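2024-03-11 09:14:02 DEBUG pipeline.ingest accepted 1 chain
2024-03-11 09:14:02 DEBUG pipeline.ingest length=135
2024-03-11 09:14:03 DEBUG pipeline.predict start
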Amino acid sequence: MIDKLNQKLAATFSGHLDASNDPDAADDLGSFGLLRGLRERSQMLTLKKTGGNQVAIAYAWIERIEFNPSENCITLHGVGRDVRIRGNHLINIAKADVTLFDGLTRHRVPWIRESGRADTLKADLDTCVVTGIEW
C-alpha cells in the first residue's frame, strides 16, 4: 500500500499522472463514467447536457434513487429537488456486472452525459443510452 501511494505521488509530482496509470480514474462507458476501483467512491455526480449545461450534485444530497421501467427513467430524489435521467436500457449491464442504477447506488458514477440523437441511433440495441437529463 505504501509503495502504491509512493508511485502515485511520484507520478503526480513528475507530471505523468493520467487516466492510463491512475487507478482512481473512471472508465468512459458512453453515457456515464464508472470508477475503476471497487472501493472507490465519488463525492459528487456531474450531470452533462448536450447543450453544454452542467450541474454537479453531492451524493450526500441524494435521499433515494428510483428506477421506473414504464417511463425508462431513473429519478434521484434529493432534498427539495428531483433529477430525472431518461434513456434506453438504463439497467442493462454496462461493465463488470454493474448497471447505471447499481453504479449510482454505490456512488461509483462520477458523471452522466446526455447522448445526442446521432449517438443514440448509432448505439447497440442493448447499450445504456441517456437521452435526457432534467433538473
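2024-03-11 09:14:41 DEBUG pipeline.report The beta strands are 26-28, 33-35, 44-48, 54-58, 62-68, 73-78, 81-88, 111-113, 129-134.
2024-03-11 09:14:41 DEBUG pipeline.predict end
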